[in-house]
Write a structure and sequence with these properties.
Blueprint lengths: L32 E4 L3 E7 L2 E4 L15 E4 L1 H18 L10 E7 L4 H13 L1 H5 L15 E2 L4 H11 L6 E3 L16 E3 L4 H14 L4 E7 L2 H16 L3 E8 L5 H13 L4 E4 L3 H13 L6 E4 L15 H4 L3 E4 L8 H6 L10 H11 L29 H19 L22 H7 L2 E3 L5 E3 L9 E9 L5 E10 L8 E3 L26 E5 L8 E5 L4 E2 L9 E2 L4 E3 L6 E3 L1 E3 L6 H26 L4 H5 L2 H21 L5 H34 L7 H4 L2 H25 L3 E5 L3 H4 L1 E7 L3 H24 L9 H25 L4 H21 L1 H9 L6 H9 L1
Parallel strand pairs: 2-5, 2-6, 6-7, 7-8, 9-10, 9-11, 11-12, 12-13, 25-27
Antiparallel strand pairs: 1-5, 3-4, 13-16, 14-15, 16-17, 17-18, 19-20, 21-22, 23-24, 26-27
Length: 852
């Protein structure tokens, strides 16, 4: 059957034909309920038992009442808190004046099927109430609201059933994010925040302590599935890894529990996040305690973080130091005395109290009989511990929220013929009361503003609880921080670290990692096929640093900076250039000065013997100009040494190019003169007349002028400039100071013109190589040009391939080698005759061989 507007209710079967017998209700046994009559009756569902068997239907016999086991003392306290709140409201003349609140509370057994069954039973009880006669009461109204449930899966089933009828369901403990969907659950509200905020807080909590390698444990219900999934996704976005997810089935076997325990023992993750209720964790924690497992840092969801049953001495070694989120706790005045005044009774409706009494004192069937004289004041359990109640406070707020909504719905503030009492003729059938409940807004005696947002949820506030042993060796739930989900993200989490005691009572934060964080100077390299939290540490490459522990990437140093030896900071790159103080620089300077001094000495010798035949025969004017150009060639090497500057960069290549062209121009003239000198001995030759001193000077000027123009245009149009070259930094860490040539073609044109003149000189000298020895200067020019060509042909590839300041050294070496080649091949033989064999330095000696 289904519930209809005509009054047909679930649990009844009516035949359409009125002539047939009337409907007979199936299942005469109704679920047990704790109830109290009133003008308005509020429903309540609590998981007084946490184990329920799945029903088996044959559809042939009357269904039996589902049996439940495992009495939960804490859930019984939640139920009695609802009773306490209702009675407190009934004593309050300012809230719902003239209206008595009643209640009908049932056991959901924390199971979907049982929850739906008691829901239908709750609605069907109104049929009996309808038979009562009253003109001033609200007996004709159905249950206007239901408080419940604890777990998310049963809550979803009940909320989905009540939604189409606009009957509010106010939960005190169902936190699944799935219940936020107002399309599926339009009449659902709760006084507990959604798991969405708890998950965000848990992720912030574990990352705050540097835990990025954790495990998770959950169950098969919606609360756990949605919570674990949301946590894993958000945790992964923050760089965390979940090593394992273990699932506890609804009725786990011994083998399943042992398999989960084996995984926990072998795991490298020392931090485990658990989304489950205390009843679902008992078997697992009992097995871990039996194995004496310690050293696991448990992160508890709000479902079990204040579960006194798990705080018993049996679990101290396992669960000491547990950290988790809980709802803010308060001390409700009068609640403890009310709870301690509870007494068993054989009267109908007292079955739950009797069950509690038997569980609390261990009496009953097959045990010592309960006398009823036992005193709760001498016991300590999760029922009597009301120092800071949390879930009970959520129940308390839910009752008061419904009462305040009823207050406005029944117009209790209006003044009329009834003297300001509430209007009792209001109907709850059109869903108007649901709207009043959604709009409720009041401040309770604890100065907390109670209201529901657009999703029917309260402000997300949590306490961070730490399980600590006190001086009596009992576990206490100590507040060590808080979390406000409505605050800006950077201000949500507040933790007092020095108040926390960790697993096994340690003061140091536990470490949970697959791989130790990489030290500064290295980076993480993920292992193939493994989570990103499992990695190897690789040293940063040259020119890169990592200055933080656990860096995933190395940072490249800025331009002109280099990594230090430890690869933890960038330092200014060491500037390198061919310095006068370097060993190579000193050697090159010494060779340069040697060449200059030697050239100067030869110049002095030639000048002293300028009237001797051997000097005159070799065209003394051209010889002196050649010696001058060689001095310039030697001296230009000094411009290449030292730190590049604006003027040295412009001068070095121009000085080198012009000096060498002047030198080669002189050699070209000398070669032509030698060839023409011998041609004048041939009758009728006019070469000597056509190539006199004036023509020789013109030729030198004409061959030197193109190089001067080229160098001038180069320096003026695209001049070289000082440049800090970082290209060598990647291998040496040094910055080479050099002269940057914006027009590289200019240098090769300069070399090309020098090569052209050298080739012409070599060609002409080669043609005159067989002239008589005494006057055969062409032979020495040939040798010098061969040396010149050998040097400069090898120079080009060496120059291009030499790194840094070595390229400058190669160019200086080429200049010195070719200059010494010219100096030694052309002038040393003549100095040898002048100084060591003066008898041969006469005109007759110079011409003897010619006339032989």
């Amino acid at each position: 059957c289904i519930v209809t507007e005509s009054g047909l209710r679930i649990g009844e079967v009516r035949r359409v034909d009125s002539s047939l017998p009337q409907c007979v209700k199936l299942g005469s046994s109704e679920p047990i309920a704790l109830h109290s009559d009133g003008d308005v009756v509020i429903g309540g569902f609590f998981p007084l038992h946490y184990v329920a068997t799945d029903p088996q239907y044959s559809y042939k016999t009357k269904p039996e009442i589902t049996s439940c086991s495992g009495f939960d003392l804490r859930a019984f306290r939640w139920m009695m808190t609802m009773v306490f709140a209702v009675e407190e409201i009934n004593r309050n003349s300012s809230l719902l004046p003239g209206v008595k609140l009643g209640y009908r509370i049932m056991d959901s057994c924390d199971h979907v099927h049982t929850s739906l069954k008691v829901l239908f039973s709750l609605e069907n009880t109104t049929e009996e109430i309808k038979r009562r006669e009253s003109s001033t009461c609200l007996y004709y109204s159905p249950v206007p609201a239901v408080i419940g449930l604890a777990s998310s899966s049963p809550t979803r089933a009940v909320a989905h059933t009540l939604g189409p009828f606009n009957i509010p369901l106010v939960s005190y403990f169902a936190t699944c994010t799935c219940l936020t969907d107002k399309h599926l659950y339009p009449s659902f509200l709760r006084t507990v925040p959604s798991d969405l905020f708890q998950v965000r807080g848990l992720v912030q909590l574990v990352t705050f302590f540097g835990w990025f390698w954790v495990g998770t444990i959950g169950t098969t219900d919606d609360y756990s599935l949605y919570g674990i999934q949301a946590f894993s996704n958000l945790f992964g976005q923050q760089g965390g890894c979940v090593e394992f997810h273990l699932t506890i089935s609804k009725s786990p076997t011994v083998a399943e529990i042992q398999q989960i325990a084996d995984k926990l023992q072998s795991s490298t993750a020392r931090v485990v996040v658990v989304f489950a209720t205390e009843g679902q964790l008992l078997d697992l924690f009992s097995e871990l305690t039996r194995r004496n497992v310690t050293g696991i840092q448990w992160i508890a969801s709000e479902a079990w973080v204040t579960a006194s049953r798990l705080a018993s001495p049996n679990f101290h070694s396992l669960l000491e130091g547990t950290l988790g989120f809980s709802f803010p706790g308060v001390s409700i005045p009068g609640l403890k005395d009310f709870l301690l005044d509870v007494r068993p009774s054989p009267k109908p409706g007292m079955e739950f109290v009797n069950m509690f009494w038997e569980e609390q004192f261990g009496c009953g069937v097959e045990k010592p009989l309960c006398t009823g004289s036992e005193d709760l004041r001498y016991t300590y359990s999760s029922y009597s511990d009301v120092t800071k109640v949390r879930i009970s406070y959520n129940v308390y707020k839910a009752v008061y929220a419904i009462a305040h909504a009823l207050h406005t719905f029944l117009n209790c503030d209006s003044v009329g013929p009834s003297g300001g009492l509430c209007e009792k003729h209001s109907s709850f059938s059109n869903g108007e009361f649901l709207q009043h409940l959604k709009m409720v807004n009041f401040t309770n005696q604890f100065h907390e503003n109670i209201y529901f947002d657009s999703n029917g949820e309260p402000v997300p506030l949590y306490d961070i609880i730490n399980w600590q042993k006190d001086s009596t060796d009992k576990i206490r739930f100590i507040k060590v921080g808080s979390y406000d989900g409505s605050a800006p993200q950077t201000q949500q989490l507040h933790i007092v670290k020095n108040m926390i005691l960790w697993t096994k009572g340690q003061l140091q934060v536990p470490v949970s990692q697959c791989s130790a964080p990489c030290p500064p100077g290295s980076r993480q390299a993920t292992r193939q096929g493994e989570p990103k939290c499992c990695f190897d540490c690789l040293s940063c490459a040259d020119g890169e640093i990592s200055n933080q522990t656990g860096s995933t990437e190395c940072i490249k140093c800025p331009e002109y900076f280099w990594s230090d030896k430890e690869k933890v900071k960038c330092v200014a790159g060491e500037e390198e250039f061919l310095s006068f103080n370097d060993t190579m620089g000193i050697i090159l300077v010494a060779i340069t000065l040697l060449g200059f001094i030697l050239t100067t000495i030869i110049t002095i010798v030639f000048h002293s013997f300028r009237y001797t035949p051997i000097v005159k025969a070799n065209n003394s004017e051209i010889s002196f100009l050649l010696l001058l150009s060689l001095k310039l060639c030697f001296l230009c090497c000094l411009v290449f040494i030292g730190q590049p500057s604006w003027w040295t960069c412009r001068l070095r290549q121009a000085a080198f190019g012009i000096s060498f062209v002047l030198c080669l121009s002189c050699l070209l003239v000398k070669t032509i003169v030698v060839l023409l000198a011998f041609r004048t001995n041939v009758p009728g030759s006019r070469g000597r007349m056509l190539f006199g001193t004036f023509q020789q000077r013109i030729l030198i000027i004409c061959t030197t002028a193109p190089q001067i123009c080229l160098c001038t245009g180069w320096v003026l149009g695209a001049p070289p400039f000082p440049f800090r070259n970082p290209n060598y930094q990647a291998s040496t860490g040094k910055i080479v100071l050099e002269c940057k040539e914006p027009w590289p073609s200019g240098f090769y044109l300069l070399l090309g013109y020098i090569g052209l003149l050298a080739f012409v000189c070599l060609l002409l000298a080669f043609l005159g190589r067989k002239l008589p020895d005494r006057f055969n200067e062409a032979k020495f020019i040939t040798f010098s040009m061969l040396i010149f060509w050998a040097v400069w042909i090898s120079f080009i590839p060496a120059y291009v391939s030499s790194p840094g300041n070595f390229s400058v050294a190669v160019e200086i070496f080429a200049i010195l080698a070719s200059s010494f080649g010219l100096l030694l091949c052309i002038f040393v033989p003549k100095c040898y005759i002048i100084l060591l064999h003066p008898e041969r330095n006469i005109k007759k000696g110079m011409t003897r061989k010619c006339w032989r």
